[in-house]
Amino acid sequence: MGEIRYPPNRGLLKEESIQRIVAAAKANAGLWLMVKERAVEKRAIKAELERRGADANDMDRLFPTRLTPTIAELAQELVSTMFGNCPPEIGSCVQSALLEAAESELDGGSPEA
Known about the structure:
- It is a single chain.
- The chain is mainly alpha-helical.
- It has helices at 9-12, 15-27, 29-52, 59-62, 71-83, 88-106.
- Helix 5 (71-83) crosses helix 6 (88-106).
- Mean pLDDT is 81; it is low at 1-10.
């Protein structure tokens, strides 16, 4: 079967496509571990910001060293590997879906796709 390349962007924004991308991330143990690390990092930073009474705009100043690759880079690489491109508007949806799925799993939700 041939590789899917350059599908219409609006097709990638459908919930079914986003869930397919999340399932692919979960199927790759190394990638999924990195996504979960980013979710834990996000929680830790949020807790520290709340503790300090700072707002989200202070994040880069207070936490200059962050895990790399970033969740944005992981999402872009995953979508590009699957579909051949990753338009910016899709990247943010995928990032959100990946972090949401990882946080759900960390909270005791089902690890299944």
